[in-house]
Amino acid sequence: MNFRLFFITVGYSGLSPKAPGTMGTLASLPFGVAILIFLGPQTLFLATLLITLIAIKTIDRYEAETQSHDSQHIVIDELVGMWFALSIAPGIMFAFSDLGVWTNGIAIQIALSLLFFRLFDIKKPSIIGRIDREAKGGLGVMGDDIIAGFAGGIASALIWQMILKSGFIG
Description:
Elements: H1 3-8, H2 20-39, H3 41-66, H4 76-88, H5 106-123, H6 126-134, H7 137-166
Helix pairs in contact: 2-3, 2-4, 3-4, 3-7, 4-5, 4-7, 5-7, 6-7
């Protein structure tokens, strides 16, 4: 097994012929949620930082060997963006049994994090698009998704707070 390909394609999900970015995001979601629930948002955030550093170096090596930049099957950046969004949105630790409790918002925040991360990653507004167009190497591949993940997590947290303040849930 080629571990580098397994890593950058998130368990080969990036090799999907249709929507590899979405497949990579969906493949990474359950693992990110599991870390969030069982180990907490701080652990998820730190794990994401570590994976980011490893991914940048791995992508640099891969691109040097293949002579191609930001191949569509590289989806480790989707994992990083999704996990940053998940780690930022709730900001508190939940138990597995809390997933079905709507008033704590974990399921809603997971869904909002997914929605906003993919929206920012696909539309690439402002600095996200600029990083995508101008940055090179592993940092260029990862940079737009890192910012999209942070923006997605912040947007999710803001929407959840607006829902709480409105009295709609609670």
